[in-house]
Specification:
alpha/beta, 9 helices, Rossmann fold
Length: about 270
């Protein structure tokens, strides 16, 4: 499905009045996401997770320098997105992607139409209800719903067109545990129906209960990919020291000893 090969991203900035230099952000990323699976992309803040998502959709700033290739079903993403039907959909992290001047129901309808899907009012309500939102949300504006409701609305908008690939950037941020679990179970159902899902998240514990594999990003480099079921107990089945450090740093695990182990492995 999705294939990212040797993807590197840097940003040009002025070094003085005339000369410009390139500041590296991502370095040599290789990643594949197949149909029927969820890959969770995890890492610390600033590791480059959202940057990778933006690169997939071509929404990087103008001063970005991109090298490498991104393809969907063997086609460059530009050609794939130009084909018939929705191929990729982004669930953005920022709630500002909602149109403040349009009712929530209208935005959901627009998303269905852009995906080439004919949806009745009942279909729209059913979609909202699948994310724990009631029919009342249809007539509300984004500023009239809570942050958690707005985040679930973004997910409904992204998936109503039935895309082949869903890239969800922190879809559970700000949600209570029950709502977060509902969102991830919905993504799991989509994957089980043959969709591909790239889940970008800080919530390692919640992600591994729904993902198939976990990709570890650290300071712009992809360290490797671990099976999701290896994140259990003391993490002894994890092959990457940094992955084990992240796992042991979770509140339910050893919490404070992992950073020392990771630094020792790097030395």
């Amino acid at each position: 499905m999705l294939s990212v090969e040797s993807l590197s991203i840097g940003f040009l900035r002025y070094d003085g009045l005339i000369h410009r230099c390139e500041v590296p952000a991502l370095d040599g990323i290789d990643l594949k996401v197949d149909r029927g699976e969820i890959i969770a992309l995890v890492g610390a803040s600033g590791a480059g997770k959202s940057l990778l998502a933006h690169a997939l959709f071509g929404i990087l700033p103008e001063n970005a320098v991109v090298r490498g290739s991104i393809s969907l079903n063997g086609e460059p993403v530009e050609a794939a997105n130009g084909g018939k039907g929705p191929r990729m959909a982004l669930v953005p992290q920022s709630l500002s992607h909602l149109d403040p001047l349009a009712r929530c129901g209208k935005q959901l309808l627009w998303a269905a139409q852009r995906g080439g899907k004919t949806k009745t009012m009942a279909d729209l309500v059913t979609t909202l209800e699948s994310f724990g939102l009631d029919a009342e949300v249809m007539r509300l504006y984004p500023h009239q719903v809570s942050g958690g409701m707005a985040r679930r609305l973004l997910l409904a908008i992204a998936t109503i067109g039935e895309p082949d690939l869903i890239v969800a950037d922190e879809p559970t941020r700000g949600l209570d545990p029950n709502a977060a679990d509902n969102v991830l179970r919905h993504l799991r159902r989509l994957a089980d129906r043959g969709k591909a899902v790239l889940l970008i998240t800080h919530d390692l514990v919640t992600a591994v209960s729904h993902a198939d594999r976990v990709a570890i990003l650290e300071q712009g480099r992809l360290l490797g990919i671990e099976p999701a079921n290896a994140f259990s107990e003391d993490g002894r089945r994890l092959t990457l020291p940094y992955a084990r450090a992240l796992w042991l740093a979770m509140p339910g695990n050893q919490f404070t000893t992992a950073p020392l182990e990771w630094e020792a492995a790097r030395a």
